Structure prediction request, 518 residues.
Amino acid sequence: MSNRKTSFFYALLIAVVSLAVGMVIASRLGMAPESGAQTAAPAQNSKPITGPVDATTFRTIAKSVNPSVVNIRTESKQKASDMSDFFGGGGGGDDLLDRFFGGGGGGGGQRGQRGQRAEPKEQVAVAAGTGFVIDKAGFIMTNNHVVEGATKIEVFFGDEEDQAFKAKIVGRDPLSDSALIELIDKPKFPLQEVKLGDSAQMQPGDWVMAIGNPFGLAHTVSVGVISAVERSFPVADGRFQQVLQTDAAINPGNSGGPLLNLRGEVIGMNTAIYSDSRASGNIGIGFAMPVNLLRDMLPQLRSGKVTRGRIGVGVNAVPSSAVQEFGLTSKMGALVTTVDRKGPAFKAGIEPGDVIIEFNGRPVKNNTELVAMVGSTKPGSTVPLKVMRDRQPKSLNITIEELNIDAEPAAGDAGKDSDEEQTSKGFGMTLGNISPEVSRRLRLESGVKGAIVMDVEQGSPASRGPLAPGDIITRINGKSVATAAQASAELNAIKSGSAARLLVLRNGQDTFVIVTKE
Prediction:
């Protein structure tokens, strides 16, 4: 296949996938084998950015940084689908992403004799991305989703697409969507590493430049501004990362490329774009992982294994309307919504409805900051924390365990069987009793009592809570309920405009939910 046809294929493939999924996010994969390579993070410049922008500013940045930016091409083995699956003839019901990338949908194989489907054949899938040299010894940073599952990684410098250098994965991390790769084949010319800036200094309106490989167009330069900082971006179920938002043009293929400040220093790694059903490319909303996060990750990436702490809670922001109710003086802390009954938090005595205001001696600004604090704490260590419970501060000690993202609790099946249904007025949900069938299906422990949520009206207070079918309400405003009738009576007694504080059993976890009655 010619270079022109190959580039067109990459562009078409990536564009359709972007259209299907809307947003490119990190994938959950394990770590690569440990490497004995040693690299050092480039020095970081935290000096304020001053001085005018003139006609040569961006030209100078592009000229100085381009040699440090690489194009990445990967190959991976995936299951082939017959052409009917691409054009709707298979009737398998699988989604578009699965059809392109060998998912488990029903439309995947070719027809064998007597109407049976033959096992789909493997084919080589290709993808493209960007990276930047982080160390002259041949180490390159890129996105995890650029190299995940790759059986072959090739790196290209400049516009020379006929000279490829093989590379291998040293370490990767799905939660920061970062990966460190190392050149196996070294070029004869000396490598130029990037310089790092300080992403914490960036503010909305600051000029930035992106360099990447969008749609196979090598070393494309685009300029824009920082649109927002500390934007919460989903990286896994229930987990978010604070990222930089920019309007500098980022498209499929830019992933893993640098976002640069006016000094030509990397302040972020371009990671994702937001698109809708009308546009598969850039619409002015792109996201970059802050370089400060990436720099902190480098020692673990080069070791081949990234380790994070976990305490076994789900947290949300404290609602503005509930600040005084929790005994707080400002909207600070992290509201505990779920507690894993097998996790460290449960053992330490943390309860749903607690607000964690201090962790390891440091004040907790919000739920995202708490996640970062816990993640950076060494597993096995015991640290103090402070919570607000019933308007009073309470000190606890908790032992951190190691995070295994693939073992995180997943959503369970909703229960649909009940011998009695009750409709709660003003909340938009239907409640039922816990039947033996529901107890078996949800694998409930013996003796669990409460009211199971049977149905939730779209757009209702319950749906915004959020509540979902299969949730079991065990307490309402501090009072235990054992049946649907009891729960409905308590809910009906709440005045319109007032909040119901619910303790919900969900996927084996106690979950704290606030729902305001209409």
User: Anything to note?
Assistant: Residues 31 and 305 are 6 Å apart (CA to CA). Residues 1-39, 81-117, 410-419 have pLDDT under 50 and may be disordered. The first strand starts at residue 69 and ends at 79. The two ends are 62 Å apart (CA to CA).
